[in-house]
Amino acid sequence: MTQDWSRYWRASDRPLEAMHAHFERHVYHRHSHETYSFGVTETGAQSFSCRGSAHTSAAGMIMAFNPDDPHDGHATDELGFTYRMVHIGPSLVENALSDSTGRHTGLPLFATPVVNDQALAARLRALHAALLDSGTTALRRDELLTATIAGLVRRAATTPLTEQRRPSRSTTIARQARQLLHDRVMDDLTIDDLARSTGTSRYAVYRAFHAKYGLPPSDYQRQLRLRAARTLIADGTPIAEAATATGFADQSHLTRWFTRYFGLTPGTYRQATTPDTALPTRARAR
């Protein structure tokens, strides 16, 4: 029997979530987040691929993912790993980095997915513990959040996250296909639909999309539907209804993919709609 477990917390009023988990057998499907995601490995080691390379985060190391950074993840060995993860929306990062005049300095880019910095790891653990502790005041959480973002950017970020002034043809194709997926997230689109919308061939649109976003269009579409289901569940929609509304065959189908992408079941996520309901949960044997 697996010893996997997870604990989740979600802010009710802003894009801020936290996870504390131990995984021995769970394997993350390749996915990305719409947030910045910062994790610190406490015990063991997690191996994952990101941006075309293989990485390992051992105890004391930090994982730093930009929004829409595709990655997977699994235990490096049979002993598993324990880690803390904080997901922070880009708007919170931008606000935390505003200068004294209130001007925004732009979003940072973390070029290295694994950072070995003990001071940053300690700061991230302190923020994570405060988020999961229902006795921590809102003011203290905000202080730790601002200080942690500033420290991560100062010590681990490289350059502002900016777009090319003149995107290549391939990038333009990928963005157009992505927009169609967002606009028609519940439609049963085909690769021909994507090709027609971009004025190119099926192969060209697939190649451009995968190169830009690190996922096939079908995986990206499923991810959009999972995010939509997650929002519905957080808003109180019954899980079975959320599954139907977002294009999944039934609740068990949604649960399988939800767990593979997010590391916890929809039911566990529903319990985390407020800080006081973040409870430790034993994962199913896989």
TrEMBL record:
It comes from Nonomuraea cypriaca. The keyword DNA-binding applies. SMART domains: HTH_ARAC. This is AraC family transcriptional regulator. InterPro entries: AraC-bd, AraC_XylS_family_regulators, Homeodomain-like_sf, HTH-like, HTH_AraC, HTH_AraC-typ_CS. Keywords: Activator, DNA-binding, Transcription, Transcription regulation. PROSITE patterns: HTH_ARAC_FAMILY_1, HTH_ARAC_FAMILY_2. It comes from the Bacteria. One of its GO terms (molecular function) is DNA-binding transcription factor activity. The lineage of its organism: Bacteria, Bacillati, Actinomycetota, Actinomycetes, Streptosporangiales. Residues 175-272 form the HTH araC/xylS-type domain.
